[in-house]
Write a structure and sequence with these properties.
heterotrimer, A mainly alpha, B mainly alpha, C alpha/beta, A: mainly alpha, 3-stranded antiparallel β-sheet, 14 helices, 3 strands, 68% helix, disordered N terminus, disordered C terminus, B: mainly alpha, ABC transporter involved in vitamin B12 uptake, BtuC, globular
Chain lengths: 388, 318, 580
């Protein structure tokens, strides 16, 4: 008989729970955000040899709210990110891991540039914008629906498929740019045509309005439409979907069409609304960030508006901190990385319960057995429960 | 011409090989680590920090000892890669967070870290360091074309090939590999058979991340000759593609990575326009998609992704 | 006969949230005995055994192995204490061969450096007798290895090299291709298992898989074997073979624990029986000193007079005619083999059979979830009098035909309901498509949800509570309530009372009876024969996908149904059935 070296009671025991009150869950999440900011402040203090925390927070806020321009930027960046986040949400609610938003948006952007190149100046700007929107949406849908078809038909792994599609899209864009720019510099200059009209003398306002409308529409779609209901059933349980006669394949493809269409809108907003140009880095990782933001917002359009703004706030604020403290342009990526780690990690404390077993009282409780087994470790009933 | 193309393709393949061997090990344990590009960046950042710290400790750059600087940079690259793996493991294995989300966050973080370190670190002496990294066998010249093809690389290239072979053997021929595959296929079964799922997942993810970390180091110190460039993550994603392309077999990854790097480098050796170059560079992704589609259509059990890939395991789930 | 104790459980409790799976269970297992753990479905047998095998960790209580208290935190720990479990759902890796599955998780026997070196020293210090014929004075001499300088050097070198030896030993153990599976073949041969050990699991039949599981546990040298419902999936012959093996193992001095709810097997194989009821230990008795009646009483807590009301069927009409239905599944196994029967309106047709004999597939095929290879399912519409063929139609198409077919599936939260949605949204599953607008109507479902909560006394905070938070009985009420709300003409229910308490079970029986009185053709798949006999008007018995007989529920005897279930008897009266 081998004496196992594991004659110890586990230090703690993890069990699932799903009865956390909503306010408590949000308290934990809020705590994680605060913790992330504090950790970032400490890191920036270390990196700058002791810049005070006050200065960190001051610049963080100044970077976002310092000037009206910055506030507008906050909303504009939020709008684009939120638009992509809205685009990935239908698929994710269906448990279709579409990490190809980057490529889908890029294809939308490419379609816009194609329209500008070939129709620019030959038709009125308003008409051009409409044509751009149509093409952009169509291109993005194509890009999104290809993996969906394979997933529906042969269960091809969609995570890996959509990931690869991103880079195919990037290469196509790189290729097109070289075709359009014969000099070989690989940089497409600012395009003259196809600009979104200004509203109230400001750029970007249309972007913000469009996305705000989309948030409401998507909320209605998820909550009140039959399609939205079907896709949540498919996401929760494919068996149930089959049981009530939902055509799962059809729903997968239809949902990815919607996903792609929204990516197309994001592509349009990027090219016509903000950049007026295109590069392989136009989306700049926002296709991935959007997934994180949507996940943090629990795929609810209104919560996602909040989380995407929070992300942009931290990103933009950290840029300001970095430039004031002279820390380079990539400092915000580190800070947002830490923010994500902590906020992702805090879900654990919401979904699981950790039960620590108190060791101090061991001797009092575990009375030796009749056989004199005083090594017996009585499992104490008064183990404490820790929530967070 | 073709020889030198092949030679540089083999050399460049190391970055894909490090990444894909690391990711294969991780995926075999059922963890779909989309943080691998970030982890490769972190490895690169670690290497930079290690080399810079070593140079700083010297009074004069001429005192630099080749083997020491190489080993120090490798250790720090490993530590940083391992740190990335640790973050991923703690979040996904212990805290059961969503793997895709955690991986993507890690990639954001890693890219940022490399760019930050690259911008801050003192790069004086890095070209000298690179010389040591690219140092090949002394008898290479005497062997002509044969020597150029087989003995002209820096240490890291050989390490990449050796690690790939070791990983393949361990996965296929040992009990450790058997247990690891079982963890990735069916963790509940492995658990019931007495395999510690948590330990295997941690070990595979951490070791995989350390190996991937070398990829970033190789790219900056060997391939770029000590110049810092931040596009490591692109090769990281190609490494993820390579894992699929080689249907989760590290020994095939050797050939696969050479094919990938040939496709990637071919435009430089062909007389084609910039646009055509970009089209050729698309090939690795396209062939990966084709492989992915074919394996799913054929649906041969042995060439499928590990069955529980991307799923977090909780024993008391019910 | 004084037997030594192998395992003792003292005061074991386990809770899953609010649900008590085990409460204060005491249990003793002796060496060299076969112990049956008997209990109804949901009585906590499997949970209890899972705590022995390290799958779950007890919330309260203590386990003793060989008299010493132990902590079993994982299956690995369990193996170290010689406890091995064959789960009901096999724990095998599909893409591995049998050998690889057996080898999985095996640990090298300990290579203790200290003890090895002590052993070497001891051996070296031992006197060796050398017969030396040259010396006539003393032909036999005593020599010690430690006497000579070279001998001492050799000894020290050996000891110094022990770590290396250990490493080599570990490496050799770790290396798989070396004589892989030789010992496994020996174990298999010893107990007379006939199996191709190089076959991949995905190519294997259920009984082959079980064989692999048992070989695995035996190979690991388990002294205490836990078998969870081992006969549920076996044919009678296979069961007898298994019992022979189990008896052999008892002769070897191993303890075998069989989890079961089949009384005849308990009587046949076990030495003692421990009975669990609702998670609590009722009693442990010697099999020789008890009988089936007493065990049943202990198991269910009272005599199995169920007193389920049963009205005579009225105005019977052929509602659903199934003929020659054959279904082949993904693994190319014939799960339904030429099944024919007719379900009448105004009666409850019971379906009995060993678990996994094709009951689920039959209902799913009728509901349009599977595409049968051949056969017809025709539905006689009571309003139009038309005949509709349901084969190769999806559930949606069946509904569009106006066929009011309701189906309470076995897997409530995995198929019948969506756990994360609230009661209202679950009500909508059947009706969400109504209306021309692309938007949902939540008003009627809400009304329905509230009606069901009120009428069926569903215990829930509100109609907005996600159904997964409800208890098993309430979940089932929600599901059955929804299915009968659409005024069906055919109602199929698979194991609708599984895991439910007595009160909830009776609620369900009453609901089914009400439907029957309304003229619905009710098809009831059950596992408890007593219930089937008291509830159903006719009982169809299936075995391995074939109909072995259809008997009258009022006249049938349990034993007869049991014989039909194992396929040992078959009633050939298909013609009579189809025509009546």
């Amino acid at each position: 008989m081998i004496k196992a070296k594991s004659d110890r009671v586990p230090l703690f025991h993890i069990s699932k729970r799903d009865n956390v009150p909503k306010w408590q869950a949000w308290l934990i999440r809020g705590g994680a955000v605060v913790a992330a900011l504090l950790v970032s402040a400490v890191i920036s203090a270390i990196l700058t040899d002791g810049a005070s925390m006050g200065l960190f927070f001051k610049n963080l806020f100044l970077g976002v709210f310092g000037t009206p321009r910055r506030i507008l930027n906050l909303f504009q960046n939020t709008a684009i990110l939120l638009c992509i986040a809205l685009a990935v949400t239908p698929a994710f609610k269906m448990k279709f891991w579409n990490i190809g938003a980057e490529g889908q948006v890029l294809m939308g952007g490419l379609a816009c540039v194609v329209c500008i190149k070939y129709f620019g100046g030959k038709m009125p700007n308003e008409l051009l914008l409409v044509v751009m929107a149509a093409f952009s949406i169509a291109f993005s849908i194509v890009w999104a629906v290809i993996p969906a078809i394979f997933k529906a038909k042969w269960r091809t792994n969609e995570t890996l498929f959509t990931l690869m599609m991103n880079y195919v899209a990037m290469q196509i864009v790189a290729c097109c740019i070289f075709v359009w720019v014969p000099s070989g510099s690989g940089v497409l200059g600012v395009l003259k045509y196809g600009h979104m009209p200004q509203l109230g003398g400001q750029n970007y306002v249309i972007n913000i309005i469009v996305v705000a409308v989309l948030v409401v529409l998507m909320f209605i779609y998820f909550r009140f439409s039959k399609h939205g209901y079907e896709l949540s059933v498919v996401g929760e349980s494919e068996n149930t979907a089959k049981y009530i006669g939902i055509n799962v394949k059809k729903v997968i493809i239809r949902t990815m069409v919607l996903s792609g269409a929204l990516c197309g809108v994001a592509g349009l907003l990027l090219v016509a609304g903000t950049d007026h140009s295109l590069a392989t880095t136009t989306v700049g990782g926002r296709g991935f960030t959007a997934i994180l933001v949507a996940w943090l917002g629990q795929f609810s359009p209104f919560l996602m508006s909040f989380t995407s703004m929070l992300y942009v706030f931290i990103d933009q604020g950290a840029s300001e901190v970095a430039s004031v403290f002279n820390m380079g342009g990539s400092f915000p990526d580190i800070i947002t990385g830490i923010f994500f780690f902590l906020v992702i990690g805090c879900e654990f404390f919401i979904n699981y319960k950790i039960k620590f077993r108190s060791f101090k009282k061991k001797n009092e409780i575990s009375t030796p057995d009749a056989e004199g087994e005083d090594t017996a470790v009585g499992l104490d009933k008064n183990s404490e429960e820790v929530t967070a | 011409m073709f020889l030198s193309f092949l030679q540089s393709a083999i050399r460049f393949s190391a970055i894909f090989l490090f990444g894909s061997v690391g990711e294969t090990l991780t995926e075999k344990s059922g963890n779909l680590n989309l943080g691998i590009p970030g982890i490769m960046c972190m490895g690169g950042a670690g290497g930079l920090i290690g080399a810079a710290a070593y140079i700083k400790s010297l009074e004069n750059i001429s005192q630099m000892n080749g083997p020491s600087v190489v080993i120090i940079a490798m250790i720090t690259a490993m530590l940083f890669g391992g740190l990335g793996g640790l973050i991923y493991s703690v979040l996904t294995i212990s805290m059961r967070c969503n793997q895709n989300v955690t991986g993507l966050a890690l990639t954001t973080f890693g890219i940022g870290l490399l760019a930050f370190v690259g911008g801050t670190v003192d790069t004086t002496g890095f070209t000298t360091v690179a010389v040591y990294f690219t140092k090949s066998f002394p008898f290479e010249e005497k062997l002509g074309g044969f020597g150029e093809l087989f003995f002209s690389y820096g240490a890291l290239v050989y390490i990449a090939f050796i690690l790939a072979i070791i990983s393949a053997v361990v996965i296929k021929k040992t009990r450790v590999g058997l247990n690891l595959r079982a963890v990735g296929e069916n963790p509940a079964t492995a658990d019931a058979a007495g395999v510690s799922v948590t330990n295997y997942k941690y070990a595979a993810t951490m070791i995989g991340s350390m190996i991937a970390g070398f990829g970033g180091l190789f790219y900056i110190m060997d391939y770029l000759g000590g110049n810092i460039e931040y596009s490591v993550d692109v090769y990281g994603w190609m490494a993820v593609a390579l894992v699929i392309f080689t249907v989760w077999r590290p020994n095939w990854a050797i050939l696969g990575s050479i094919i990938f790097s040939m496709l990637y480098l071919a435009p430089n050796y062909l007389d084609v326009s910039f646009a055509q170059k970009e089209v050729i560079k698309m090939m690795p992704y396209l062939v990966t998609i084709v492989v992915l589609v074919i394996t799913s259509i054929v649906s041969k059990k042995e060439s499928q992704p590990p069955a529980s890939l991307g799923v977090t395991y909780f024993r008391e789930e019910r | 006969m004084a037997k030594s104790v192998a395992i003792q459980l003292k005061g074991i409790s386990k809770y899953f949230g609010e649900v008590v799976a085990n409460k204060n269970v005491d249990l003793t297992v002796y060496k060299g005995e076969i112990l049956s753990v008997l209990g109804e479905n949901g009585s906590g047998k499997t949970t209890l055994m899972n705590m022995l095998s390290g799958i779950y960790f007890p919330d309260e209580g203590q386990i003793f192995v060989d008299g010493a208290p132990v902590v079993i935190r994982s299956p690995r720990d369990a193996y170290q204490y010689g406890i091995g479990m064959v789960h009901q759902h096999f724990k095998l890796v599909d893409v591995f061969s049998a050998i690889d599955n057996v080898l999985l998780g095996e640990k090298a026997p300990e290579f203790a450096l200290k003890e090895k070196s002590a052993e070497l020293r001891e051996r070296a210090a031992k006197a060796t007798y050398v017969i030396d014929n040259d010396d006539t004075e003393a032909p036999v001499k005593t020599v010690r290895q430690t006497d000579t300088a070279f001998g001492r050097f050799r000894l020290n070198a050996r000891i110094a090299l022990l770590p290396l030896e250990k490493a080599l030993y570990k490496a050799r153990f770790n290396w798989l291709p070396r004589k892989r599976g030789q010992k496994i073949k020996e174990v298999a041969a010893k107990y007379g298992f006939e199996i191709d050990l190089n076959k991949k699991i995905y190519d294997m039949s259920v009984s082959e898989k079980q064989t692999v599981e048992i070989i695995k546990v035996l190979y690991r040298g388990a002294d205490i074997l836990i078998l969870d419902e081992p006969t549920a999936v076996l044919t009678p012959q296979e069961t007898q073979k298994l019992f022979d093996v189990i008896r052999n193992m008892r002769e070897d001095g191993k303890s075998i624990i069989i989890i079961t709810h089949k009384l005849n097997e308990v009587m046949e194989i076990s030495d003692r029986v421990a009975v669990l009821r609702k998670g609590e230990h009722v009693a442990t008795v010697n099999t020789a000193e008890t009988d089936i009646n007493e065990l049943t009483e202990m198991m269910v807590g009272r005599k199995t007079e169920l007193n389920i009301a049963r009205a005579l069927p009225e105005n019977e009409q052929d509602r659903l005619e199934v003929s020659n239905l054959t279904l082949v599944n993904h693994e190319n196994v014939k799960v339904l083999d030429n099944v024919s029967f007719t379900a009448h309106s105004g009666e409850i047709l019971g379906i009995a059979g060993i678990a996994g004999s094709g009951q689920r597939e039959l209902l799913e095929t009728i509901a349009g979830l599977n595409r049968p290879t051949s056969g017809t399912i025709s539905y006689n519409d009571p309003t139009t009098g038309k005949k509709e063929n349901l084969v190769r139609k999806t559930p949606a198409q069946i509904r569009e035909l106006g066929v009011r077919l309701s189906f309470v599936p076995e897997d409530r939260l995995g198929m019948g309901l969506v756990g994360n949605m609230d009661i209202i949204d679950n009500m909508m599953l059947r009706s969400y498509k109504r209306g021309k607008l692309p938007f949902l109507d939540r008003k009627n479902p809400k009304q329905l949800a509230e009606n069901i909560i009120r009428d069926l006394e569903v215990v829930t905070p509100s109609s907005h509570t996600p159904v997964r938070r409800l208890s098993g009985g309430n979940i089932q009420k929600v599901l059955v309530g929804r299915e009968i709300a659409s005024a069906p003409t055919v109602l199929m229910a698979a194991y609708p009372v599984r895991g439910l308490d007595i009160n909830s079970s009776y609620t369900i029986y009453n609901l089914l009876n009400t439907q029957k009185e309304r003229g619905v053709a009710v098809i009831y798949v059950g596992e408890d024969l007593d219930v089937l006999i008291e509830l159903c008007d006719r009982i169809m018995v299936i075995c391995a996908g074939r109909v072995t007989g259809i008997v009258d529920g009022r006249k049938a005897k349990k034993e007869d149904i049991g014989l039909l279930m194992t396929g040992s008897v078959e009633i050939k009266e298909k013609e009579g059935c189809a025509n009546d």
